[in-house]
Task: structure prediction
Amino acid sequence: MSHDNCACGATTDDRIDSGGTFLGRQDEPLEAPLPNDVGTALGRLFETGSVPTLGAWVREVRRRTGGGAIAVEDLCHAADETPHWGEIDGTRHHFVCFYDAVVLAALRDRPVDIRTESPDGEPIELRAVGEDELNVSPEKAVFSFGVEKGAEPPADRDPRREDVYAAVCPYVKAFPDVQSYKRWAETVPAATVAMPLSGATEFASELVS
Result:
């Protein structure tokens, strides 16, 4: 199904000057405090006040979309080939957003080979097995999560899944290292945070469970 309209340890964070924020490896990354600008922008989208953690954001998304988990047909499948794909059982699925390939692995609970590119064109490869195992190359790769700073809820209805995709998906990217993320974060009109890509499956499991 094609979605061409998809725009798809410690508990403190480490600042990377003005270019964004990196949440280092956490025991519970979904409950690590979000930077103020990210929490505020996410809260504005849902008119809830600042969102404190990624876990709280996932719970709010699911509440607003009926409480159900994401299904395969909800992913941002691309009609044409893209740099972001996941291959499972010999079939390659191209996505608008690379993270959908990680979600695909959690949905299918089978090995998925994933390839994506950073905004600078650097290749990043992953092999995901269900919700618990993710091998990453390069090992220091990170991924970003963010929301457009000016994103507002629709004036005539509650936000839908496609509204969330439009505001968030352009800022979910993979990078070979923290420095690459920092350079990109300085150029985009979004509030963003980055985390180790090796922990990406935990986020995915919350979306599909």
Summary: The chain has one domain: 14-208. Residues 1-5, 9-20 have pLDDT under 50 and may be disordered. The first strand starts at residue 14 and ends at 15.
